[in-house]
Amino acid sequence: MMMRICKKFLSVVLALIMSLALALTVAGCFHSKIGEDTLVIDVVFPGLSGMKPADQENNPVAEKIREETGVTIKANFHEGSVTNKLTSIVSMGTTSDLIMFRYGGTDDGADKIVKDAIAADFFLPIGDYTEGMQNLEPNYTTGLSQNFVKNGIDDPDFNGKRYILPMHTAKDNENETNWGYTVYGRKDILEDLGVDPYSVHTSQQLYDIAKRISEGGYKDVNGNPVIPAGCWQQGWSYEVFLNSFKYRQMTSILENGDGSLTWLGMDDKMVEEAKFMQKMIKEGLFDSEAFTQTDSVAKEKHVNGSVALTGAHYSHIQNALEYTLYEDHPEMRYVPMGPIYDANGNPYMPETYTTMGLSATAVFVVPASTKKIDKIIKYLDYINSEEGRKLVYLGIEGEDWEYDENGVIRTTEEYKNNLKADGRYATDRGISSIYTYGVARLENNVYERANDVEGDPAVEYREIVREMYPLVRVDGVAATFWDDEFSRRDELLEVLITNDYKTMIESCYFANSAADIDNKVLAYRRAISKNGLMNDYLEFVKNRAAEARAEGTNVLF
């Protein structure tokens, strides 16, 4: 939801900051111990630690950056709750110079922590330092939805200042990445079962296949029994297994045929989803550890082929396994399954039904305690230059990449051979690693196709999954756009934060019985509906959306 700052919460954060002013002062002093030319990034974005080079200071990309800017980068990675970590940073202070997290411009969770901290002057208005810079100023708008820019990047409460610097956006529509989310299955197992991966269209079919895998006695590379189904770190992305129960849309509000609206948590499809996953876990068909496992644990399971069916996007699986599992066991390549249709019968997966431009992305904010804003701007300006982008995504020209006879960028044979021998070769050289943090307006097609080899099955399957789930972009305004006008908005916000939907439904997955799920859902629904709160909100949204449509606005639910 797009609501303004809750005054009660703001007062708490302000009190914390003022009471710990001394801690902030001391934190600023610690910068000298790190080094005047070193920029420290706190990466509050779980699952990215695998992007850290073995030596952050001494690798080819780092050395080239230091040569051009005089700056050295050091990234610290934080797993676990993003909201808790950001709360700790704001309340206790930080010695970092940049903080990276995922921002959607909402007024809850991590976004709210940062917005409240902005109101308390905890962060610098980085826009004041990038104004007029051709490599940086366009980053605030390019590749982003107009609604996100207006209410997230340029939130009215920021009083015309820009504190949020987006990253990892596309240069244009043609470079927008179709990530290829779906369920992927080990090719050898699917073939042995006689399963055509392109004939799987429902979550129930996935359950049936997982059941057959469980009964089939299949092994990983070490001869251990496989896990029928799972995913990667911190539960990413188990939701692809549940696509039959997912409404892939812009909000958590469902439009009914009679003109009425339903909050997602009140819809029975959600209960079906909970009971389906609970059955998968209880029967040992889905890896219960996947919801809390680290990136390294998840990768180890997949490198060993220990997960028969897995959920993620294509490039993540491919990058992790091309020179590990696939090198010695090409028959175990994970192939895309589907299209698995969503609850509306559409071939949509995460991030395929989207607005024109991103409505959330990774961002940087700059703590006011830093003494290195000039170095920050110099560094960001360089990595966002044409030369800098090629460096951080492709490496050193002549060593890692070169132009072919048609002027197309291709990775060198030396690079490919080294990567084949060592799956971490690129990362440890600094390529597509921590130095990409802060880069925007990307030529994703160039970076991706640089590694393409004619006849490579990796290219074939990448295109297959994208054909299964083509990008569908729509232009319009989300039905939650006018939430600020709702008279009970602060009350609703507090209720939805206290009764978090994700926490509730994941607890249902691990419930003891179907009756236990019903009780959890009932308690949730009573809490969010108390005193007619949800009914009032839905009636407000219905009326406001009708007014907008009457004026010719395309309203998206």
Which characteristics define this entry?
single chain, alpha/beta, five-stranded mixed β-sheet, four-stranded mixed β-sheet, 17 strands, 12% strand
Helical/strand content category: alpha/beta
For the largest beta sheet, what order do the strands appear in spatially? 2-1-3-12-4
Task: Identify the quaternary structure here.
Answer: single chain
Strand portion: 5-15%
N→C terminal distance: 12 Å
Please estimate the helix content: 40-55%
- Model regions low in confidence, pLDDT < 50 over at least 5 residues: 1-32
Topology, number of strands = 17
Please count the helical segments: 24
> Can you summarize the main beta sheet?
5 strands, mixed
Give the C-alpha Rg: 24 Å
Tell the overall outline. globular
Mean pLDDT metric: 91
Structure description:
- This protein has 557 residues and is of the alpha/beta class.
- Helices cover 41% and strands 12% of the residues.
- The protein contains 24 helices and 17 strands.
- The strands form 6 sheets. It has a 5-stranded mixed β-sheet with strand order 2-1-3-12-4.
- Strand 1 (38-43), helix 4 (60-69) and strand 2 form a beta-alpha-beta unit.
- Helix 1 crosses helix 6 (109-119), helix 11 crosses helix 22 and helix 11 (268-282) runs antiparallel to helix 23 (514-529).
- The longest helix is centred in the last third of the chain and has 18 residues, at 533-550.
- It is globular.
- Residues 1-32 have low confidence and may be disordered.
